[in-house]
Amino acid sequence: MTIEILPSSAPDVVLLRIEGKAEHEDVLRVIDLLEDLLFRNEKTHVLVEAIDFSGFEPQHVPEYLRRGLPLLGKLKRFGRIAVVSDQAWLRTLARIESALLPNISYETFDLSERERALAWVEGREPRPHGAGLQIIETSRPDVLAFEIDGKLSEDELETIVERFEPEESRPAPKRVIGKIIRLGGAEMKGLFDDDFVKMKLHAFSNVERYALIGGPAWLAGWVTFIDALTKGEIRHFSLEDEAAAWDWIGTRPHKDSRAPDRGVHA
Length: 266
Prior knowledge:
By secondary structure, the chain is α/β, with parallel strands linked by helices.
């Protein structure tokens, strides 16, 4: 197979599709294209769609490194970069590379998210994975329920802070339930905001019950550690036990929520 350079909507956007092993001539053609665009454009945005990618011809890797090294001096000229792949190892490698290289950031997507990735690279979608936070309305006003899927923006962190403050229409939450589909962190500026820090302290000091559903493997151990330090109870539930988490919190989501709609016990 080969590397295909696809038609793009703008001169500063590069769309590449790689299937199988990358052929030598195609790699050189892509490097030539990037060198030209990085010279001409203030920012160059790239989408790489990799299907069954199996690497490069090893005898040519030294040449690729020699050609690629000068590009390191132009990293600031890369803009939005999306890696779309059906291979989890390749998406993980892209995230590691993004963390190691200064001034450059990748977003990774599976093949089903290709159109969203394209919209983000082309600048039509401001956030690569859409909203990271969904507030779930429940049948109890003293319960805060939410779902996290991806990275939280500053505005979304502020939304969580506001939900811990009482209003005329609802009291401050006494019970909290959060479902973690994909934990993508939060914008660094928001994490160190005074209001967000105060909210976290308030949550663990005033909430009676705090249920977390799903999330990465380490979350269950973290919950066990925090539970020993707090006045209220905090428990972790697997995605398969989501209904049990709602039972423990003592409420149910409204019907338009994606959480299970079933009877609960206070």
